[in-house]
């Protein structure tokens, strides 16, 4: 849990038992685990952060959003079938989204925000010809190489 009302560079973290006497009337954000992923409730975050464009989910009757990028569904299960049929994708990681949102998590939105801020400062310093040449050169994905590839084994002979 993190207290938003107490002062500090990062918001001070505390446990569930410390909330009762130290942070009883304070605004608190609690990071929860759902299916091995970190989530936060929309009701705790929407007043503090701009969450527009981030896909929200209902888990145990609470509307939540994921903090970090979620892996792509693998195999031929029900999730993979729904993902293939979805026309909406995350702009950063390419994960299929259920509704017309731009991002699958707060982490992907943060990456986009950093890119747009870096792009805005870079374009202010460069002329338009150089910018057009850079865009025409091709775009690479956010991940340069796949994480796993073909395994390279040692040869059987020495």
From TrEMBL:
InterPro entries according to UniProt: PLATZ
Compositional bias segments (type: Polar residues): 120-131
Spans annotated as Disordered: 120-158
One Pfam family of this chain: PLATZ
Listed Basic residues bias regions: 142-151
Descriptive protein name: Uncharacterized protein
Species of provenance: Eleusine coracana subsp. coracana
